[in-house]
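W.,

You were right to be curious about this one. When I first looked at the sequence I had no strong expectations either way, so I just let the prediction run and decided to look at it fresh. Below is the sequence, 167 residues in total, followed by the output.
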Amino acid sequence: MQKVAYDEYIKEATESLTKGAFLTVKSADDLNTMTIGWGSIGYIWGKPILMVMVRKSRYTFQLIEKADEFTVSIPLNEGMEEELKFCGTKSGRDYDKFSECNLNTLAGQKVDTPVISGCNLHYECEIKFKQVMDAAKLDFDYDEEWYPKKDYHTFYFGEIVSCYLTE
């Protein structure tokens, strides 16, 4: 493990996010990961922040609503496309994604939620703010394009408490 500044690999993280990353959430004994393709890394409230979005219909939503942390694991290299596809199209309600995809976890360095082994870049985050989308304030074209089922996201702002590379 090599600790890195939260913004040292921001370009690579942003580019890789468009191909998918693993958002992992733990609540009590329940653990789930899902694929995300959207997110934002920035500096808010004097802290490095990673913002992720989860729709209410997702199994992960049930967990993250009870959690106070999450991790994001990003494969910077190729080789996890099938796992990302599976975790982005199958629900943790119906599948144990870890066994189905042979995903292994590594213990978090500063949080109890693990990261996904096989990924190179990891963010450990403590949730500091959440906000449900207000559809009335959303651009009409975005609403039409991204929310035809009106299944809006909740935004979770996590303070990045650890950022590191693994092999």
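Here's what jumped out at me. The helical segments are 10-17, 59-64, 81-89, 97-100, 140-146. And, maybe more interesting for your project: The mean pLDDT is 95.

Coffee later to discuss?

I.
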